[in-house]
Structure prediction request, 235 residues.
Amino acid sequence: MARVSARKRGRFITFEGLDGCGKSTQLKRLAEVLRAEGIAVLVTREPGGTPIGERLRSIVLDSATLGLAPRAELAILFAARAQQVHENILPALKAGRWVLCDRFTDSSEAYQGGGRGLGSEAVLTMHRVVCGNLQPDMTVLMDSDVTASVARARRRNLAKVATAPDGEADENRFEQENQAFFTRVQQAYHAIAKREPQRVLMLDARRQPDVVHREIVEVVRQRFLGAANERQSKN
Ligand code: TMP
Prediction:
């Protein structure tokens, strides 16, 4: 695992889950709590987060992108990620900032590895080669109902398309996948949580957002802001 200086390094927390599971809202709410504690926080997302990454995002998410081969899709996602790690994540962690990232390599393992059927090994190998195997300190996996999440994401994106200027790229390529695809994505997420229980906090995202938020804050406080951690970071 790639390690940046252990002493003053910031924390790297990622949020994962199916489209429409509510992870982006939870990420923003955690960022607000951390900032109120005086912690410098970088909020970013994948694919995207850098000017180059955002351009790659519009290629990979636009439903007008036809015929993209699964391995080409994986390569584009990792190109955006490599840029994000280089330009945003490592510099922020080295400067002692915390990074909250909306999706990371677990998304590739779930969507491309599981959903597209490329398997975990291809994704984990890419991660080692192009991202130096950088691992989050913690991953919040928002476990939700496949049908409800996808319906919610579709409604959200239809509303975005209705208000977007003519000819603007949409973000609907994945939402057009079927129930079987998202069921494979969810199964892959569950397998990751089972394999790495110390990193991955899987929680029931079907509960009230306030309840989910309180649980996330409690775990983050226990893991990273407790008295023992405070002492360690001062040494
Ligand atoms: P978002 O709506 O959470 O921004 O996610 C964008 C879409 O991109 C979502 O459908 C999941 C997909 N995706 C992948 O398939 N693989 C990846 O590695 C990432 C980061 C996203």
